[in-house]
Amino acid sequence: MTASSVRPEEPTAVLGAIEEATGRLLRTAAAARPDRISDPSLLPGWTRGHVLAHVSRSAEAMIRILEGAREGVQADMYASAEARERDIEDGAGRAPEEQAADLEATAERLAEVVRTMPEEAWTFEIRHRSGRVFPAARVVWMRLAEVEYHHVDLDLGYTPGDWPAFFTGPELESLTTRFAADEELPPVLLRDTASGAEYRIGAAAGPAVTAQGSAGEILAWLSGRADGSRLTVHRGGTPVEEPAAVLPSLPPML
């Protein structure tokens, strides 16, 4: 796929990207040694098994809200926060082949819901548990993000450098827009060294720090998958030796 062939607002095109991303994740999960599933992931407090169980359960959550959108009603992603955590915990200890089977089955069910969704239902407004409101069509891109981010979180060889350009571009736009008006964040100018694209975040007073790197490295920092140490950072025109010590702490993704 090319960077221009997948747009977040086009569910059918995004579904193809999801299926490719899910295939990569399935290969990683199936190849994992059983004794490594219980090792820590890159997400604090979660093992690799927790991450895999979450990806499966979040597919079911997205099925629920899309089926609600089909009927024109709001549906909760999860029965409760406690039920969400319990389901993830219950599934965390399974063997790699069980995790992979669950991932594949739930992904196929979600894909079928997307394929059979009436066109008019995609405009139904979803109220996310974070408080954000967006059209149902955006849920499909959310699934792509879940698969891509959490594949990295497994820490089994898939890195931000493996993210496709059609994913990093829209995600950079989305996260920098979210952080641009944050009055608690000091200003940072971000520059993609490959494309030359620039993004600004932070609305607090003060001179901007400049940070540059690949799109994947920038997105890894913005999404909490890296501390920014791989970025080249300048403050007042002078390069800094420890980028992670200069870059601000970012709010967690919801």
TrEMBL record:
GO MF: isomerase activity
Keyword Isomerase applies: yes
Keyword Isomerase appears in the UniProt entry: yes
Keyword tags: Isomerase
InterPro entries, alphabetized: DinB/YfiT-like, Maleyloyr_isom, MDMPI_metal-binding, SCP2_sterol-bd_dom_sf
Source superkingdom: Bacteria
Residues of the Mycothiol-dependent maleylpyruvate isomerase metal-binding domain: 19-154
NCBIfam families listed in its UniProt record: maleylpyruvate isomerase family mycothiol-dependent enzyme (TIGR03083)
Protein's UniProt name: Maleylpyruvate isomerase family mycothiol-dependent enzyme
Organism, as annotated: Streptomonospora halophila
